[in-house]
Backbone:
């Protein structure tokens, strides 16, 4: 739940992923409880998956939490690095990018809107040389 920046967040997220779009925007009107023009309810897709978000009409003493994250399985190191750069800009790294043993590259972050993301570059497969190992040779 956002507090006034749901549309900005959606537009940012949609710009990062293929097969993504804002599907529906419903705004608060002049006589409704939310700030006029803010997002009453919206639907958007990221990589073909549908999400819903709102701008809360009331202020809360809490915000997003990393106990719920969007998990992205990256298909390449380039995709991983691009998403890491964009999503961590003005955000906070919770686990910096590294090989933590369960994948070849993993990072966990809160973006500038407070939404938590976990980025993963595939689990290492026995017998295969990772992109990182190739770069180090």
Residues:
């Amino acid at each position: 739940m956002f507090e006034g920046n749901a549309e900005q967040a959606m537009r940012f997220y949609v710009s990062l992923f293929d097969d993504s779009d804002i599907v529906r925007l419903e705004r608060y009107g002049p006589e409704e409880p939310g700030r006029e023009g803010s997002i009453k309810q919206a639907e958007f897709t990221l990589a073909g998956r549908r999400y819903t978000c709102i701008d809360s009409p009331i202020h809360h003493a809490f915000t997003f939490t990393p106990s719920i994250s969007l998990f992205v399985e990256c298909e390449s190191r380039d995709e991983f690095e691009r998403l890491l750069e964009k999503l961590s800009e003005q955000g906070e790294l919770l686990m910096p990018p590294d090989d933590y043993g369960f994948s070849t590259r993993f990072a966990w972050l809160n973006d500038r809107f407070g939404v938590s993301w976990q980025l993963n570059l595939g689990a290492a497969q026995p017998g295969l040389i990772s992109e990182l190992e190739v770069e180090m040779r």
In short: The domain at 6-53 is CATH 3.30.720.100 (Signal recognition particle alu RNA binding heterodimer, srp9/1).
